[in-house]
Amino acid sequence: MPIVAVLVLAFHPTENIWPHLLSTTLPRYAANTAILTVATGALAAAVGAGAAWLVTMYRFPFSRLLEWLLLLPLAIPAYIGAYALVDFLDYSGPVQVTLRDAMGWTSARDYWFPAVRSRTGAVVVLAAAMYPYVYMLARAAFRETSAASYEVARALGAGPVGLFWRVGMPLARPAIAAGAAIVMMETVNDFGVVDFFAVQTLTTGIFTVWLETGNAGGAAQIACVILAVILALVALEKVSRRNSRYYQSARQSRPVTKIALTGWAGRVATLLCVLPVAMGFVLPLGVIVGHAFDSPETWLGAGLGRAFLNTLTVGGAAALLTVTGALFMVYGVRLTGRRLPKLVLPVTTIGYAAPGAVLAVGILIPVAAFDHRVADAVLWLTGRDPGLILTGSAAAIVFAYTVRFFAIAQGATDAAFGRVSPSLPMAARSLGRTAGGALREVYLPLMKGSVGTALLLVFVDCVKELPATLLLRPFNYDTLATRAHEKASLENIAEAAPPALLVIAVGLVAVGLLARANLKARAR
């Protein structure tokens, strides 16, 4: 419904500003988005694949610890990393203050310092926050490649660099491309970083056209351009490996034997793995924690407790609805042997590819129209105006979260169902249990760990979601993400620190789950 609504609004706007957009701001929005997306994807792919290769193929100081520390930037939303980087490197930040004190400079005219709030700064922040998507997939691909492939290449004279470029990279290409595609789609979706760095992209264009000019049709037209970009990214990734085949012989597969790096080589490898962790996790966390403890009174600030409760409410409700819906849909598809349900189920995951701002445009307009009709009907029947039930509450936010993150719940529950032996529910059915009874008494007890993980992962993503929440929230309704963004936008990092730190804490739980899942997979 949201995607269809965006298309209808774009092709039937009340005021067609497309020619104006095309001749003024749209080329700038599109150019910035393209440069930002390609640069971030390339940098994240280089960092993620390079770090994955080092920890998989070599043994160096702290390599086992760094293998897990490299996942930590996933806990820091990119917009929080942007606040921290600006606070650390800006004119009044500790770096420039220290430089002026040490060199005797008195003003910015005495020295040159790169602009922090720039497109380049946005690329660095986004890549530092999202390289773990590439790292996780690339590490799994490198680890699953048989050691025989690398041994044959060495026997034929390949050195360390040649081994990476001529064997490791080609075999891991699907995984690296998939991770880079995720990074690029998340870059297109981003609003917090580009807004804070004043980089005008297609996503900021939706906010500008909709909120500042009140033109929903124009916002929908920009949203269509974003959808086209996302579809192009997905198609490009698939076409790029259309004629390639990647096979792994299970019988001849042997795990990789790590090569020990000592001396300067080991120190360089350690440094190369420490840098992305420092940039994507240590620096943002250090800055936020410093502000949070330097100004303890901000923890008692008006609205923080309410934002925390709002976050728990909408995130918890969306996680519960999403996972419950995924359970019933996946179970229903497994029960029926018909083709149509199997074709429909993958369509429900399309919302994950749609940016939050696009979903917000496609949800708010039709839901608001429905809301007005319901309010008019209630007023006509009872003589009392109930107000806007859905858009006047957090229901629209919950709806957006459910659409956007259904793919996560669906994937987790489908995998959990697949791990249950078919003989167990068949035995329950033969003993007189209904389909619902088999789900309740056989599947759910065996799947409770996976269901709990799915609930937590969806909840974490709901807590971090910013664009959809900003556009769909009622007046004076804050979550932790929106409160952190608003305070940071006003240059009040001290008051942005407590909600940002709470968001990071929730993100760390998700990273812990990922690390535990990886450990279990390796144990098996």
Low-pLDDT runs of 5+ residues are none
Distance between the termini: 42 Å
Query: What is the percent of helical residues?
Result: over 70%
Looking at the structure, what is the overall shape?
globular
- Can you give the mean pLDDT? 86
Q: Return Rg in Å.
A: 25 Å
Major beta sheet summary? 2 strands, parallel
Can you describe this structure?
- Keywords: Cell inner membrane, Cell membrane, Membrane, Transmembrane, Transmembrane helix, Transport.
- Helix 1 (2-11) packs across helix 12 (216-240), helix 3 (26-57) runs parallel beside helix 7 and helix 5 packs across helix 13 (263-294).
- The chain is built from 22 helices and two strands.
- The chain has helices at residues 2-11, 18-23, 26-57, 63-69, 78-89, 94-103, 119-144, 147-155, 160-189, 192-196, 202-212, 216-240, 263-294, 304-335, 339-347, 356-382, 395-418, 423-430, 435-464, 467-472, 480-489, 493-523, and strands spanning 58-59, 259-260.
- 75% of the residues lie in helices and 1% in strands.
- The protein is globular, with a radius of gyration of 25 Å.
- The longest helix is centred in the N-terminal third of the chain and has 32 residues, at 26-57.
- The model has no long low-confidence stretch (mean pLDDT 86).
- The chain is mainly α.
- A two-stranded parallel ribbon has the order 1-2.
